[in-house]
Design a protein that fits this description.
This protein has about 110 residues and is of the alpha+beta class. It folds into two domains: about 10-60, no CATH class; about 65-109, no CATH class. Helix content is about 25%, strand content about 30%. It is elongated. The structure holds zinc ion (ZN). The site of zinc ion (ZN) has 8 residues, from helix 4.
């Protein structure tokens, strides 16, 4: 399996937490001063529709987004490390990991 030929469009439900649930928690349990405890209790009692918005969406997902995906083994031309999840960078015709391409996000200790 490789590349965009295996990418598809899927139907999915997008779930998002409602910001308004915090205010609702205050009205449900004004007797609890600790906000965290107030929300923990209220969220258990609240209806799903008061907690989350639900929305049918169309989403494009590559094969690598699914469990068990086995991609072709890509190896950095500079350091020889294996590169996962299409994070390789093409520089001057060479395939590099992000670190070797100058995009290192960490510092060796
Ligand atoms: Zn490298």
């Amino acid at each position: 399996m490789s590349g965009s030929a295996s990418d598809h469009c899927y139907k999915a439900i997008r779930i998002a937490a409602k910001e308004s649930s915090k205010a609702l928690a205050r009205t449900m349990h004004p007797e609890i001063e600790n906000k965290n405890q107030q929300q923990m209790l209220a969220y258990r009692e609240m209806a799903e529709d008061d907690l989350f918005t639900k929305q049918w969406v169309k989403v494009e997902l590559g094969a690598e987004e699914f469990p068990g995906y086995k991609g072709e083994r890509i190896v950095c031309a500079e350091c020889g490390e294996g590169i996962n999840f299409r994070r390789e960078v093409l520089r001057d015709g060479r395939t590099l990991c992000r670190a070797c391409a100058g995009e290192r996000y960490y510092k060796p200790l």
